[in-house]
Structure formats: structure tokens, C-alpha cells
Specification:
alpha/beta; eight-stranded mixed barrel; binds magnesium ion; 56% helix; binds ligand C2E
Length: 852
């Protein structure tokens, strides 16, 4: 655009220069350019050159100066017209011979140059509105002049008879006007022409008419005038030339103004539209951004969900509304052992264990039809036959608007471990961990059921309460692991021996119970009891050791109306009776037994007040030196003077006292009474006091003995304590400290009833005692039984070699005494010398015995 402007301006400058050259050289063709037409005045040529250069120069000040000079030139000319003088313009251009020709440029040319110059200055100073107002004037003037030349109407280029505008002057002014307007091509009509919107479009379409319309109108006016048609008021008011000029000018100006206004309005509308479009575009863009962000967020959320589903420790499946599988994660595949292709649709049902299949299919069908969630625990079975427990939970997915179920989501959790653990816990709750046999809880439940059943079939239920004899000995001597092995083996044997309907259980340390339903007769019971005893009595091989135990069995019968607990208690009581009657045997609970138990309960109650009531007495029986015929000691024996019942022997209350925890009180009372009595005995005679294993394992037993010795003043070596063999065995473990304390005190220790228990030489070696008392059962049959003689002789030898004194109990006859003496037994005790008496120093008539 700027280039076209410069080219136009240079073109005009070149024309001016040619004209000047023409004037200087008096070459008319150069001054008029078009032969026969009016020449351009030299001042006009100079002014046009100055204006052209002002537009070409980029330097602001130079441009302004040149335009100002051109304006001045034209203004002076106008002033000349005004004052009616040439003002010597002819002389301004020395060397040019005007030969009488009017030297001044036409007034219209001068006005046009002033206006173009002013417009150029306004344009340079960025006064665009002024520039436009000024520039359109000369444009109109030059166009009218050009039209005049076109139509041959001189009045259009010769205003009011003044000098005419030359054709090339008019052309130059038109070009320079346009060039000035192009100085700022964004404004005005040029700007509108270049507008890309509807304003530009309208202007571009309309502008040609601004040129064509005057031409057509002018042509029509001229033609009609020449035809003589044009006569009337129009012609009165306007002579031919000025009328045409006014017409053309008014049409042009009116057209330009209208076009301009319309274009400006359009541009405003365009602006509003563009603004709206811009706002819309921005809104659209922000919406797109929002959609992009949302899409991205959704994508990320979907990715996270996928990752979660992938790493979730549970199987996750997606099902359609009808329950057909659509997708599943890897954990599902691992649990079901199906491929995804096999799982699709209803294929997932193949994973379900046949035993659960029908139930799950029905329940799942109901849940799908109701559009509800479903939860269940079921088993999966893999093609390899592996069974897994799973917990299945599903939830329906509903359409947000219609709430119609569109599918289901489900989780499948492996609960095999949990189930196994539950089963283990349940098993442990009802079974004995060592033998895996039912425990007391399960036993009572089974017994209860068996009794209910017996109510229906009229047959009895037999309960065998089994307690192992000598088990403690096995445990203590061979160790607990062997004890466990014995219990396990006994459990196995009992089970092997039992019928499939029987229940074998272990309810405590060495206590087993066998329940046998459908028992009809005593013979049945005896057969079963014999079988159980035989099975248990078989030696048990543990590694390279052999253990052997026996069973004391208590038997009770029950029918439908009996309580399970009481039946078990009856069998327990019968078992105690079997123990009391010598072990390794069985007893049946019957009414006689019930009576004895009641009596025992009665004894127990009465015994509780015995110590406090001073009913415990101590009787004494002498221990004699068989060779020297002297009394060396006296054994303290407890007696209970029971109100209304008289004197009760220890056999009837010591065991009960031990069982119910009263033995400590009785034992301490006897110890105290014995020590007090012994203080007054002649010749440092000792007193021998029986000690129950229950007393011995008491932590403070040593302290009690010491206190009593201190209180009574009895020298410790005058006190003998008779321990049972089981008390000595206890000393291996829990009572070792008491044993040491007693030894340190200096009291003498004896093993009572030696030969009936399980003392081994090992024990005698590790726990030093002073005396062995041979049990009276050996003495009793001494004269008849060679075996007993051998045993007694063995014990005497053992005593000799271990430097222990040996006392034989229960000597009732001279023969027994003599045999014992012959065997080398030094001490004796028995009715032969004296029965137990309340007196601590019973008289023994040795004279009679010596002679015998
Ligand atoms: P033991 O310690 O072996 O006492 C000997 C038992 O044999 C006594 O029975 C005694 O009267 C009896 N006896 C003595 N000589 C003969 C005889 O020639 N023939 C027969 N047939 N028997 C004879 P007792 O007094 O009835 O005592 C029984 C058991 O009671 C005692 O046996 C002892 O183990 C226990 N005992 C007695 N008093 C106490 C006590 O104060 N504390 C503890 N823990 N047990 C005691
Ligand atoms: Mg004794
Ligand atoms: Mg004894």
C-alpha cells in the first residue's frame, strides 16, 4: 500500500518536473502533456513536486516543510485572486517566459493544493479526521475537473471563468489526494475499503458506483441538454457547467457520506459481532479446556481404578444386568483357575464346587431378578481338584436417571486360610491337642446325645472312667515326653478297641472316658472293661524304653432321664473305689457305692471341724531293737475321736483329709503332740511321725518342723519323719528344697511302707535317708511265702550296704521276729511288742519275748 502511495507521488513529481522542463525549454507539448489542452502552470508544477516529495520523504520535518511551502505557494495565488493582482508570480520563476499567459494557477487548483497540503500535514501529525476531511475536497475537485475533460464541459474545469485546471494537474491532485489518504490506510473510506468484514464488503461493492454514477449522471445530463430536452427550472438555477458540477459533487459527496455512514454502522455491528464471536470463541475455548481437563481427570481416574483393580488382593468381576461376566482381573483368574475366555458370560459358574453349585445358582438367580446385591461363602474347585473357600460379594450398578440395574460389580476373596483356621480353632475347642481325642466339652455333648437316643431305644449307655495307674511314675522317671507318648498310645489303643458308635475322650492328665451306647447287660460291661484294661496293660515301647501302666476303671450306667454330668461323676466315683481297692481293676457304680459316697461326704464334713474341735489325738506304738530288747523309738499314729462315733482309725480319714486338703492341719497337730510327748521320753528315745506327701510338698513344711522343734525343745535327732515313697519321688522335683532343709535340721528321715511303691536304688542314692520301714504286707506272709522272705532279705541287705537302719513293721508272731532277726533285721514294730496306745511310752514285756 505504502509502495503504491510512493509510486503515485513520484509519478506526480515526475509529471511536475516534465512540465517545468517544458516551461523552461518552451516546449508546449511538455507543459500541456496532452496536445491541445491547457498547460500546467509552473507554480502548479512546483507545488505538485513539493507535495509529492513531502509524501515521499520519510523524514517528518522535511515532509512538513515541503507541504507548507506548497501550501504557501497556493495560498499566495489565492490571495492574488482575492486582491485582483498576480503579485508578480510571473517573476517568481526566472528563466520562464510565460508570454502573456496567466501566470497564476487556477483558483480551484490553488484551493486543491492548499487542501492536499493541509491534509498531508494533518496526516503526518496523525490528525486523521482532519486529514480525511481535507483530502476528500481536492479529490472531488480533481474528479469534477476530470469529468469536465471527459465530457468536454469546460465549466467543470474552469471555475467562474478563472484559469482552468489542466488535465494532468487534476490527475496529479487526484493521485496526491489518494496518496495522502493512503498515509493512514486504516481509517476513513480507505480503511473501510480494506475492512475484511461486511463494512469493507459493502464499501468495496458501492465505491465503484461513486465513480460510475457521476459519470453516468453527467453523461445523461450532457446528452439530454444536447437533445434540447433539458430546459426548465433546473437549468435556470444551474447553468450547464456548474449545474453538472453540483450534481456530480452532490451525488459523489452524498454517496460517499451515505456509504461512509452505512459502512461505519456496519463496522460497529461487525465490531459487536466480532466481540460476540470473540466472547463466544473464548467461551468455547474455555469449555474445550474444561472438557479436556475433565476428560483427562476421567482418564486418570480410570487409569487409577484399573491399577487398583489389577493390584487388589481380591478377585474383581464386572457382570452385565443378567449376571453374565464381562471382565475380571488376574486375581479372579488365579482363584477360579479359568481363563478369561472360559469365564465370560455364564462360564464363571464352572469354578463353583458341585456341592455349592445348585444353591448358589438359585440364590444368585433370585438376586439378579430382584436387582439386589448378593453375599455368600462358597467353594471353588479347580480342574486339578484343589478346593478353595471364597467369600463373594456383589452390588448392583444402577443407571443414574432411570435407576434400572445395568450390571453388577463383584469381589471374590480367598478365605481358605480363614476357614481352615476356624476349623482348627473349632477342633481345638472340642479336642485334646495331645491325643486328638474329644475333650470334656465334646464328651458331655456326645453323652447327652447318647442318653437322648437311649430314651428312644430303651438300651443303656455305659460310661467308663479310666485313670491310669503308675502314670506319675512314668512321667517322673522317664520324662514328660515319654509320658506324652504313653498317653497318645493309650488313646490310640482305646480307639482301636472301641466300636464305631463309642466315643473315646481324654478329659484330664491321665484320665480317659469311653462312652458306649447300646449296652444291655453286665456281661457286656465286663467284656468291654476287660478289653480296655487289657489294651492299656500291654507294655508300651517308647524308643528303647518300655513303660507299662494299668487302668483303674469306674463304670456308670445311664438311661435317657439321667444327666450327663452326674453320670460322669458317678463313673469318676466308681473309679476312685477301684483305686482304693488296689488299682488295676474296675468297679461299677451302684447304690451301695452311692451309700459309701454319702458316708464319705458325711465324714468329710465332720473332719473339717476335727482339728479346731481338738478331736485329733496321737497314739503311740513302740519300735524295738530286736537284739537288745529295748525300745528305741515310738511311732506317733493319728486317731480321731469323732463325737457320737468314737475312735476312728487313720485308714478311714487320712486319705479323705489328703483329698480335701485337711491333712496339713491334722499332720501339724500330730507332729506337735508327738514332739511334746517325746520330750519326756527316757533315754533320748526318738519319736517317729508320719508325713503325708501333701504335707511334704508344702513350701513351709521345713519351717513348721523347725518351729515345733524350737517350741517343744525336742533335739532334732530325736525326731524321725516317715515319708512315703511318693513323697520321696516328689523330692526329685518340687520338694527338693524341703528335703534339704530337713536334712540340714538334723532330723532323721525314714521311708515308710518300703517295697510297696516304686522307689529305685537310684532314688535312695540321690536322696539320703536314714531308715527303711519294711511294709507289714511282707512281714505278714514271711513264714509262708518264700518270695516275701526273699524281698525282705533283699531290703535288709540293701539297708546294710547303704548303711541304713531297717525296721520291720507288723510283727505279730515270734516266728516272724525270729526270721527277721535271722535275716539281720535290727529293728521291729508290731502287735507282738505293743499295739498302738495313747501313752507315749508303752510298756513292752521283753522278758516274755526273750524267753520265747
Ligand atoms: P503306718 O505308718 O505303716 O503305721 C503302721 C500301721 O500298722 C498302724 O496302723 C499300726 O496300728 C499298724 N500295725 C502295727 N503293728 C501291726 C501288726 O502287728 N499287725 C497289724 N495288722 N497292724 C499293725 P494305723 O495306726 O491304723 O495307721 C495306718 C496308717 O495310717 C499308717 O501306716 C500311716 O500310714 C497312716 N497314719 C497314721 N497316723 C498318721 C499321721 O499322723 N499322719 C499321716 N500322714 N499318716 C498317718
Ligand atoms: Mg508309719
Ligand atoms: Mg507302715
Amino acid at each position: 500500500m505504502q509502495r503504491a502511495r510512493r509510486v503515485g507521488a513520484l509519478f506526480v513529481a515526475a509529471v511536475g518536473l516534465i512540465v517545468l522542463v517544458g516551461w523552461y525549454t518552451q516546449t508546449t507539448p511538455l507543459t500541456s502533456v496532452v496536445p491541445g489542452l491547457v498547460s500546467m502552470k509552473p507554480t502548479t508544477a512546483v507545488a505538485l513536486i513539493l507535495l509529492s516529495l513531502s509524501l515521499v520523504f520519510t523524514q517528518r520535518r522535511a515532509g512538513l516543510s515541503l507541504a507548507a511551502v506548497a501550501i504557501a505557494l497556493a495560498a499566495v495565488t489565492l490571495v492574488g485572486y482575492g486582491v485582483g493582482s498576480t503579485l508578480g508570480i510571473a517573476e517568481w520563476m526566472p528563466g520562464i517566459d510565460l508570454s502573456g499567459v496567466e501566470p497564476r494557477m487556477a483558483p480551484s487548483t490553488a484551493v486543491a493544493i492548499v487542501l492536499v497540503g493541509g491534509a498531508a500535514i494533518a496526516g503526518t501529525m496523525m490528525r486523521t479526521t482532519v486529514m480525511q476531511v481535507l483530502a476528500y475536497g481536492p479529490l472531488a475537485v480533481s474528479l469534477i475537473a476530470l469529468l469536465g475533460y471527459g465530457y468536454g464541459v469546460s465549466s467543470l474545469y474552469t471555475v467562474a471563468g478563472f484559469t482552468s485546471i489542466a488535465l494532468h494537474t487534476a490527475l496529479g491532485i487526484a493521485i496526491l489526494s489518494v496518496a495522502v489518504l493512503l498515509q493512514n490506510p486504516t481509517v476513513g473510506l480507505i480503511g473501510l475499503l480494506r475492512d475484511r468484514g461486511s463494512a469493507g464488503e459493502m464499501t468495496r461493492r458501492f465505491v465503484p458506483f461513486l465513480f460510475i454514477a457521476p459519470v453516468l449522471l453527467g453523461g445523461l445530463r450532457v446528452w439530454s441538454q444536447r437533445q434540447g430536452w433539458f430546459d426548465g427550472w433546473f437549468d435556470v438555477w444551474f447553468d450547464g457547467g456548474s449545474g453538472l458540477a453540483v450534481l456530480i459533487a452532490s451525488v459523489t459527496v452524498f454517496g460517499i457520506v451515505l456509504t461512509w455512514l452505512a459502512a461505519v454502522k456496519l463496522r460497529e455491528l461487525d465490531g459487536q459481532r466480532d466481540q460476540a464471536m470473540g466472547a463466544l470463541a473464548m467461551l468455547n475455548q474455555s469449555l474445550e479446556y474444561a472438557v479436556d481437563d475433565r476428560t483427562k481427570e476421567l482418564g486418570e481416574a480410570a487409569d487409577k481404578l484399573q491399577t487398583l483393580i489389577k493390584i487388589a488382593p481380591v478377585g474383581i468381576v464386572q457382570l452385565d444386568a443378567g449376571g453374565g461376566l464381562l471382565t475380571a482381573n488376574d486375581q479372579w483368574l488365579a482363584l477360579s483357575d479359568l481363563t478369561i475366555a472360559e469365564s465370560l458370560g455364564d462360564g464363571w459358574a464352572q469354578a463353583i464346587h458341585p456341592d455349592d453349585s445348585a444353591r448358589v445358582s438359585t440364590e444368585w438367580g433370585v438376586a439378579v431378578a430382584a436387582g439386589s446385591g448378593y453375599e455368600t461363602a462358597l467353594r471353588f474347585r479347580t480342574p486339578q481338584g484343589q478346593v478353595n473357600w471364597v467369600q463373594v460379594s456383589t452390588a448392583p450398578i444402577r443407571d443414574e436417571h432411570s435407576c434400572v440395574v445395568t450390571g453388577h460389580l463383584g469381589t471374590v476373596t480367598d478365605i481358605t486360610e480363614l476357614r481352615n483356621a476356624e476349623a482348627r480353632v473349632e477342633h481345638l475347642a472340642f479336642h485334646d491337642p495331645l491325643t486328638n481325642l474329644p475333650n470334656r466339652l465334646l464328651l458331655l455333648d456326645r453323652l447327652h446325645r447318647a442318653l437322648l437316643q437311649s430314651a428312644g431305644n430303651g438300651r443303656g449307655v455305659a460310661v467308663f472312667f479310666i485313670d491310669l495307674d503308675r502314670f506319675k511314675f512314668v512321667n517322673d522317671t522317664l520324662g514328660h515326653h515319654c509320658g506324652d507318648a504313653v498317653l497318645t498310645e493309650v488313646g490310640i489303643r482305646l480307639r482301636l478297641n472301641a466300636r464305631s458308635t463309642d466315643t473315646v475322650s481324654r478329659i484330664g492328665g491321665d484320665e480317659f472316658v469311653v462312652i458306649c451306647p447300646d449296652v444291655c447287660s453286665d456281661r457286656d460291661v465286663n467284656t468291654i472293661a476287660d478289653g480296655l484294661q487289657k489294651a492299656i496293660a500291654e507294655p508300651i515301647l517308647i524308643g528303647d524304653q518300655i513303660a507299662s501302666v494299668d487302668a483303674s476303671i469306674g463304670i456308670a450306667f445311664g438311661l435317657g432321664h439321667d444327666g450327663a454330668e452326674s453320670l460322669l461323676r458317678d463313673a469318676d466315683q466308681a473309679m476312685y473305689l477301684a483305686k482304693d481297692r488296689g488299682r488295676a481293676r474296675y468297679e461299677v457304680f451302684d447304690d451301695d457305692l452311692r451309700g459309701r459316697i454319702e458316708r464319705r461326704l458325711d465324714t468329710e464334713l465332720a473332719l473339717r471341724d476335727a482339728v479346731q474341735g481338738g478331736e485329733i489325738e496321737t497314739w503311740f506304738q513302740p519300735i524295738v531293737d530286736l537284739q537288745r530288747h529295748t525300745v528305741v523309738a515310738t511311732e506317733a499314729l493319728a486317731r480321731w475321736r469323732r463325737p457320737e462315733k468314737g475312735l476312728v482309725s487313720p485308714a478311714e480319714f487320712i486319705t479323705i483329709a489328703e483329698e480335701v486338703g485337711l491333712i496339713q492341719g491334722i499332720g501339724t497337730t500330730v507332729l506337735g503332740q508327738a514332739c511334746r510327748a517325746a520330750v519326756s521320753l527316757p533315754g533320748r528315745m526318738a519319736v517317729s511321725v508320719n508325713v503325708s506327701p501333701r504335707q511334704f510338698v508344702q513350701n513351709d513344711f521345713g519351717v513348721i518342723v523347725k518351729r515345733i522343734l524350737t517350741e517343744t525343745g525336742l533335739p532334732p535327732d530325736q525326731l524321725w519323719l516317715e515319708l512315703t515313697e511318693s513323697a520321696v519321688l516328689d523330692a526329685i522335683g518340687s520338694a527338693a528344697r524341703t528335703f534339704q532343709e530337713l536334712r540340714a535340721l538334723g532330723v532323721r528321715l525314714a521311708i515308710d511302707d518300703f517295697g510297696t511303691g516304686y522307689s529305685s536304688f537310684m532314688h535312695l542314692k540321690s536322696f539320703t535317708v536314714d531308715l527303711l520301714k519294711i511294709d507289714l504286707t511282707f512281714t505278714r506272709d514271711l513264714e509262708r511265702s518264700a518270695q516275701d522272705r526273699a524281698i525282705v532279705e533283699g531290703i535288709v541287705r540293701l539297708g546294710d550296704s547303704l548303711h541304713l537302719d531297717v525296721v520291720a513293721e507288723g510283727i505279730e508272731s515270734i516266728g516272724q521276729r525270729d526270721l527277721l532277726m535271722a535275716m539281720g533285721c535290727r529293728y521291729g514294730q508290731g502287735y507282738l511288742f505293743s499295739k498302738p496306745q495313747p501313752d507315749a511310752f508303752p510298756a513292752v514285756d521283753f522278758g516274755e519275748l526273750v524267753g520265747a
